[in-house]
């Protein structure tokens, strides 16, 4: 069960996922903006400084039952972070949360990062389910979930109070183990198409 809370380096074709730490703050800050952090459930760094971003990353790593990776492109850019934002080994599920900076949207980064974490969840850890919660106001992420092939389960109304006091509605999506092969194929096709 402890394997569920480890963050091994996961190598893809265009990027790798490596354990998130303060050393990623300066490279993450290069592309970080308000658009990237607007809908994050745990809020954003206090300001766009290396110290503030490092503090934000420390706070994420201190959250219990959470495993965080930096999304590092093959040329060394930090495109964002991706997490098992909640891990429940006894129930055999994880939740995935993603924050990608603006320049990397619409590239291979999102499908490949998701592919790596979903492969780990279903094929290494033996998860029955992976789910995602999206702020109901975040149209871009809602479209991304549909493109991923995740099933929309419903809306958790006023589910979480953000640090700014706003009680957000979260739209729940999931992928079950038996749905994973089709989702995996779709993600692989998206990465392949982008690399042609």
From TrEMBL:
Domain annotation N-acetyltransferase: ranges: 15-178
Keyword hit for Transferase: yes
UniProt entry tagged with the keyword Ubl conjugation: no
GO molecular function, one term: acyltransferase activity, transferring groups other than amino-acyl groups
Cited InterPro entries: Acyl_CoA_acyltransferase, GNAT_dom
Keywords: Transferase
Signal peptide (UniProt feature, chain positions): none
Protein's name in the database: RimJ/RimL family protein N-acetyltransferase
Origin organism lineage: Bacteria, Thermotogati, Deinococcota, Deinococci, Deinococcales
